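Example (one chain per record):
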Amino acid sequence: QVQLVESGGGLVQAGGSLRLSCAASRRTVDTRFMGWFRQAPGKEREFVAAIIWNVGNKLYADSVKGRFTISIDIAKDTLYLQMNSLKPEDTAVYFCALKKNYGAFGNDKAYDYWGQGTQVTVSS
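Predicted structure:
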């Protein structure tokens, strides 16, 4: 079983920055596909960004492109999401997720494992 633990959420003023982390329970050299999703109250999960672990290819939602950066530290087995120029509409619970197979990176139903989520709140 894969365990994912998010951290780094909090309350920040509009225009500020936060860095989210997602630690995996085990190190692996196998290729994996990981992403970040977010969910605001009363709304469905929304794709944010994805990355291929051992390749580095990245994909971003249009709403965060140019503001957010997804990255990995292979030695620490950790996924990151650097969030800059935050807006009130970025307020949500942010989840990291892992999928076993290539493709459908923007579809939350295609992911196999999920973290517990971390709250991000951006004030006006």
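Caption: Residues 35 and 50 are 4 Å apart (CA to CA).
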